[in-house]
Amino acid sequence: MHYDLIVIGMGLSGLMAAKTAAAAGQKVLIVGKGMGSLCLFSNAIDVLGQFPTAMKMTDALSQWIEDHPLHPYSKAGLKNIEEALSAFLSLFPPPYAFQTIDNRNCLLLTGAGTLRPTYLIPVTMVDGIPVDVRRALIVGFRGFKDFYAHYVANQLRCRGIGLELPDPFYQEPTAAALARLMEKESFRENVGREIKKQLQDETRVGLPAILGTHNPAQVKDDLEAVIGTKVFEIPILPPSIPGMRIFNCLKEWLIRKGVSFLLGYSVSKAVLRGKWCERIEVLHPPVITSYSADKYILTTGRFIGGGLKADEEKVFEPLFNIPLSQPPSREDWFRNSFSNDLPHPIHEAGILTDASFQPVGERGDRALENVWAAGSILAHHHCVGEKSREGIEIATGYAAAKHALEK
Predict the structure, then answer these.
(1) pLDDT of residue 167
(2) pLDDT tens column, 147-174
(3) Which residues are CB-contacts of 162 (< 8 A; sequence separation ≥ 6)?
(4) Among 122-136, 176-190, 374-388, which stretch is predicted with the lowest mean pLDDT?
């Protein structure tokens, strides 16, 4: 089957690329062996966490682009970044909306009891933003191993409690299982009543981020009505239920727009004719199916997603064999000190592109004529240290699709 555009990779950058193309009326196929890092790490939307919270994000990005000309943000440009974030926000109207705190980074409470800077936060976490969290009651569930209420409470110098789950509870209490239970009215009412019994002088209640996957704002409202105080979610260890909400929302929107999904299978081969990709092959054991398109966008991520691989000598991109920016030898992958303020060089390895996000070689010559790249697979960024993962994925997925449509 032939498409206008095939997106390879189903993380946030791939989903945003597919959304941008589908909104322009393109026939799109998105292929991915999994859901990317969304369901592992994403809770809020990090854009650039290295600047003080007093600084407006527009000013921070402008300065960053000026200081880092090779960074993916610099290639996207401030206008595309702002358009991309706006396009993302349009997918989440109230009641489950994402918002900024005065267009600046805010300090979001984590499951370790620390505060981390982030930019866009879901409405279910907003009431945990005020700095004075000592009047909060932190609530966990006994047997739930991904969130320790007492540990978080000790860091914040407030109270923490662990609720007993209903007896008998036959399954291990995982984030996904608790999220499903929270969507049952009887379960959340029981939880709310038990929390209300434990309240002293607290003015808000912090829960692990498991308030359902389909209608978390309603779950939050119902709990607040029973408890009689504000409720907020706290990000926890993977898997990320808020990340699943983002994935599900984007997937549902794309399906409504007629985008074809091929989830659970990776692309086994790209068939090239010179610098032109003619088709891709997807293995459905024991059958191999071919799909062709006018244009392709590669958003397979770095090492975790399998977008980059390494052998004893070098890092390589396994699908198209696109040239990479990387240290000259394996001895240069890491710095002498493991804990260093500067990122290890291996973490900035990735695909070099031109200003249109088309892959290029070290001399700047275009590697492929109808292929674009987006997301964390790009070179010259350290998204973890920069706290920019979701921002890079949203901005470059949008910009790469936009450039592909213009060609």
Answers:
(1) 64
(2) 999 999 999 999 999 998 876 555 678 9
(3) 139, 140, 141, 142, 149, 150
(4) 122-136
Task: Tell whether the torsion through CA atoms of 149, 150, 151 and 154 is positive or negative.
Answer: positive
Instruction: Please give the biggest Cα pair distance in the chain.
Output: 71
DSSP 251-275: HHHHHHTT-EEEES--EEEEEEETT
Give yes or no for a contact between 155 and 145, defined as CB atoms under 8 angstroms apart. no
CA separation for the pair 388, 65 (Å, rounded): 13
Task: Provide the token pair at 360.
Answer: 């290029």
Distance CA 259, CA 253 (A): 9
Mutual angle of helices 389-406 and 12-23, in 10-degree steps: 30
* 8 Å CB contact between 327 and 41: no
Q: What is the pLDDT of residues 285-305, one digit of tens each?
A: 888 999 999 999 999 999 888
Q: How far is CA 46 from CA 106, 239, 387, 402, in A?
A: 10, 17, 6, 22
Chain position carrying tokens 């060609």: 407
Q: CA-to-CA distance for 399 and 401, rounded, in angstroms? A: 5
What pLDDT shows up at residue 330? 74
Cα–Cα distances in Å, from 278 out to 361, 368, 398, 403? 20, 11, 23, 19
Structure tokens at 337: 């000190």
DSSP per-residue string spanning 106-149: EEEE-TTS-EEEESBEEGGGGGG-SS--TTEEEEEETT-TT--H
Cis peptide leading into 72, omega within 30 of 0?
Answer: no
- Kind of pairing, strands 324-325 and 350-351? antiparallel
Question: What token pair was written down for 163?
Answer: 């609720």
Q: What is the pLDDT of residue 168?
A: 56
**What is the structure's pLDDT at 131?**
62
Q: Which two tokens stand for residue 391?
A: 């921002």
Domains of the chain plus CATH, in order, are 2-94+244-406 (3.50.50.60), 111-234 (3.40.50)
